[in-house]
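Q: Here's a chain of 393 amino acids. Please give me its 3D structure as C-alpha cells.
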Amino acid sequence: MGKILALFYVSLICLGLSVSPVDAYGRRQLRFNSNGRFKILQVSDMHYGFGKETQCSNVTPEELPYCSDLNTTSFIQRTIASEKPDLIVFSGDNVNGMCESGDAAKTMNMAFAPAIEARIPWVAILGNHDQESDMTRETMMKHIVKMPYTLSEVNPFGSGIFPIDGFGNYNLQIEGPFGSPLFFKSLLNVYMLDGGDYVKLDGFAFNYDWVKSSQVNWYEHASKWLEMEYKRWPFPQKSTAPGLVYVHIPVPEFKRFTEPRQMTGVRQEQTCSAPINSGLFTKLVERGEVKGIFSGHDHVNDFCATLNGVNLCYAGGSGYHGYGKTGWARRVRVVEAQLEKTKYGRWGAVDKITTWKRLDDKNHSLIDTQLLWSKNTTLDTNYRFKCNKIKQH
C-alpha cells in the first residue's frame, strides 16, 4: 500500500498537479519556494504597549517627542517589504507587560498586525514579560492561535496525555517545493520552545526560568520521529534534515562568548539566562540536527557564535518601548535556507543556511551576513574561552 501511495504522489508531481497547501488541521503548509529558498524573519522584544501613546526608550532627545510603538510597527512593515519572508517568528516579550498592557489581547493584536496585514504565516513564543498583564501565559497562547495567518500552537499534539511544561512548545516542518521529489518531506525542522518567565522554586527568587526536562524530552522524540520520516521511502535521505530552535531566554552556553574574535556581531551586556542548565544545549549537540538556537531577551546583544557545531544567535531588540542603546539602531534577524540541486536538476536537501540582520536606520542597513551551516563545509568551532566578566549596560 505504501508503494502505491508513493507512486501516486510521484505521479502528481510529474503531472504538475497541485496538492492542497494546508495540513490535516487546516493550517497552511510551509514549503521552500520555486527558487529553492525559505526565509525566516525573527522579531524579538517588541515590548508593545499602548500604540501611539507609548513612549520610546533610549532614543535621542530629538526623536523622543515623535517616537512610539508605531515606530516598531513601521520598522517591521519596512522589513517585511524588503525581505519578503516566508515565515515571521515573534520570539518573545512581544508585549511589554510590566502592568502596562491592561488589555493584553488588544496589545497583541496591534503588535502582530504587520504580519497579519501582509498575510504572511507567522508564529509566536512568549518571553518573561508577556504575561505581566491581564492574561496568563496559557490564555495568551490560546488567543494567539486563533489569530489570522498564525501557525502557532499552545502545545504539541498529545501533550494532554504526556504533559509538557510551558505554553508554546511546537514544531514546524518546511517541506520541499512544488515539483520536487522531496515535496512530501520536511527539509527544515523549526522548533519553538517556551523558556518560561521566572523561577517559582524556593531559593531562586528573581531568577529567570529554564526549559524543563519534559520539553527537552519532547524535542528529542520529535527530532527522532522527523529523522525517521526523512530517511523513510520514498526518496529516503541518508543524513538528517537540519533544524533551528527559537527560545526567548538564551541558554547558559551563550555566556561562554566574551571576546569579539569569537563572534559575528556584538555583546554589550551580560547574558541573562537561568541559574540552572537543564541540558537543552547538550541534547541539541547529541542529536546533531539543530544548526542554530535563536534567542532575544538581552536587547543590545546581537551576535552569533558557534559552539560544538551549533550556532548561538541573538536577534537584538526590535521594539522602541523596550530598552536599547541610544545611537544603536533597533534590529531584527533573518535566516535563509537554500536547497541544493540534484544531478537530475531537481531541488534536493538543504545545502546551506545563512543569516544577516536588518537595522532600522536611514538606509535600512543589511549587516553581518554569515554562513551558519553548509552541507559540504565544516565550520571552525574550536574556540578557547576565557572567563571574562562583562559589565551590564
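Q: Can you summarize the key feature?
A: The first helix runs from residue 2 to 15.
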